[in-house]
Specification:
Blueprint lengths: L3 H12 L6 H15 L3 H17 L4 H16 L4 H16 L6 H17 L3 H9 L12 H17 L3 H13 L7 H17 L3 H11 L7 H17 L4 H11 L10 H8 L6 H8 L16 H17 L2 E3 H8 L3 H13 L5 E4 L4 E4 L1 E2 L2 E2 L2 E2 L3 E2 L5 H26 L1 H7 L3
Helix pairs in contact: 1-2, 2-3, 2-4, 3-4, 3-5, 4-6, 5-6, 6-7, 7-8, 8-9, 8-10, 9-10, 10-11, 11-12, 11-13, 12-13, 12-14, 13-14, 17-18, 19-20
Length: 422
């Protein structure tokens, strides 16, 4: 409710002062409204009628702008979020009919409202308010950095509500101006938003690469870089098993920072081709986001599918052949599902071998020139030739020894120099 003294002051301005004297009178009244307010409710009500009076009295754009700007700053100072939103929304409505004359003030009000909605975790409302900002204006020049900043902000707000479709539409707008942006923080915001969208769309391998690149930025503090590395590992674990994921796991495992994150245990198990236990998977799943635990078309979760594919790949490293029933027990699936997973991975070239459906046996090929842990990662079916199998395994051991020697040189150069053959 507007206070009597403010109502009286506004009436006096309207009736008594000449038009050219009114701006000074309004400025004096605004100072009085701000200084004498006894509660946020009172301040909000008085500011609303103050703005309405300025716009109704046709002061002229030049005189009205500084008064409205001061009123907008006063709205920003309201401590209670609900009242700030109420006052800001009313001010937006009042300015709306003359928004072309007050575009900058409209943008400031929308920024204030978006901040308030964000603090209340009403992310969609915050995004909708920001969408109303005029970014293609003939009244003022808007820098490309500012446009990208608004679009990235809207994108991230939609991502908080898992609305990847709306988020991606604004990311694509920012992408068109990406080459014109020089602000490092904006570039990082773009990269993070892109990684989160890839993650939400279950393009885990691409998301892992994006998060890993993001984790090297010097603009971020140590905690944020570690969090990005952790996200990279999570996405790599959830990616479909195969040579591309093998390379991603290798890069992450060789990252010196990896042992510092909680996900290193499952990363190491996958990198070293170990079968994942249910307990290990359950512990890992407790840290996942809802979309990373969503069900796929076959009724399994993203994590369950990734674990089955990894364990099947690990089995192919350990066995020359295995019965479908025994494979089903190792994978925790029924025999038909186990055969389906194997057939799909064989067809996609992610494992080599063949399925004997008459004898219900899978015959695996061997790896030549490396494995998931390193090397060239080229797979060939070497059949049953014992000599070729022996050569491939000797080469694998030699490559592993070379990797261990390189790690010793990196972490303990003094020991390496004393033991090195001359």
């Amino acid at each position: 409710m507007v206070t009597p003294d403010v109502a009286k002051g506004l009436q006096e301005l309207k009736d008594s002062l000449a038009l050219q004297d009114r701006p000074a009178g309004y400025k004096k009244l605004l100072d009085q409204i701000v200084s004498s307010a006894t509660s946020p409710q009172e301040l909000t009500s008085n500011l609303e009628v103050f703005i309405d009076s300025i716009l109704a009295n046709n002061l002229g754009i030049v005189a009205a702008r500084p008064l409205l700007a001061a009123a907008v700053e006063s709205i920003k100072s309201v401590a209670e979020l609900d009242l700030r939103i109420q006052a800001g929304t009313t001010a937006l409505r009042l300015i709306g009919s003359r928004v072309t004359s007050f575009e900058e003030l409209d943008a400031q009000l929308r920024d204030i409202l978006a901040d308030a909605y964000t603090l209340q975790e009403e992310y969609v409302e915050a995004a909708k308010v920001l969408q109303g900002i005029q970014l293609e204006s003939t009244q003022r020049r808007i820098p490309d950095d500012h446009k990208v900043n608004i679009w990235i902000r809207i994108c991230r707000l939609y991502l908080e509500e898992d609305d990847t479709t709306s988020a991606e539409s604004y990311l694509n707008r920012a992408k068109n101006l990406r080459h014109r942006v020089s602000n490092p923080e904006l570039i990082l915001g773009f990269q993070l938003s892109e990684a989160r969208i890839l993650d939400a769309r279950r393009k885990f391998l691409e998301a892992s690469q994006a998060y890993h690149s993001f984790s090297f930025s010097n603009v971020l503090d140590e905690e944020e870089r570690t969090r990005a590395l952790s996200s990279a590992i999570v996405c790599a674990v959830l990616a479909g098993a195969g040579p591309q994921r093998s390379r991603a796991l290798g890069k992450l495992y060789k990252d010196d920072r990896a042992p510092q994150v909680p996900e290193f245990g499952i990363l190491e198990s996958m990198f070293l081709d170990r079968l994942l236990s249910p307990e290990e998977v359950t512990k890992f799943s407790e840290k996942l986001s809802p979309h990373q635990l969503a069900q796929t078309s076959d009724g399994s979760t993203v994590l369950a599918k990734a674990v089955v594919e990894h364990n099947l790949l690990s089995v192919s490293r350990l066995y020359d052949n295995i019965g479908l029933d025994e494979l089903a027990k190792l994978l925790g699936q029924d025999a038909d599902k186990a055969e389906g997973y194997a057939a799909r991975m064989l067809e996609q070239g992610r494992i080599t071998g063949s399925i004997d459906q008459i004898d219900r046996v899978i015959l695996f090929g061997d790896i030549v020139g490396g494995s998931e842990r390193g090397g060239s990662e080229q797979r060939r079916n070497v059949g049953g030739n014992p000599l070729r199998k022996w050569d491939a395994r000797v080469q694998g051991v030699a490559e592993e020894l070379e990797r261990i020697a390189s790690m010793i040189q990196l972490h303990n150069p003094n020991l390496a120099s004393t033991q090195m053959a001359h």
